[in-house]
Amino acid sequence: METTRQNKISRLIQKDLSEIFQHLSREHFKNSMITVTGVRVSPDLSIAKVAVSIFATHDKNEILPLIKAKKNEIRFDLAHKLGKQLRVVPNLEFFLDDSLDYIENIENLLK
Fold first, then answer.
1. What CATH number should be reported for the domain holding residue 99?
2. What is the pLDDT of residue 44?
3. Per-residue three-class SS string for the chain
């Protein structure tokens, strides 16, 4: 069960990461559309698990390693946005969220 503070920080990180990905996607991620679908923060606020969904690309598994390679740069940009609200910016762990692909697959099967 997440605390109120964890929920607030998760929403704040999700909003700011979505803005960061919007700016970085043109030059670093081959113009693919990256959306942050969810963020879960550990109870000690040291780790943030970020679920991303990737669109407008042929190979989604090609973009995720690029995101993980830029993890420190993304965390640095996030620290500049959250500087006044958080003392320590959590370490980021990125995961591919394929729930939308699963939903699309089910809809295609039902047709």
1. 3.30.300.20
2. 92
3. CCCHHHHHHHHHHHHHHHHHHHHHHHHHCCCCEEEEEEEEECCCCCEEEEEEEEECCCCHHHHHHHHHHCHHHHHHHHHHHHCCCCCCCCEEEEEECCHHHHHHHHHHHHC
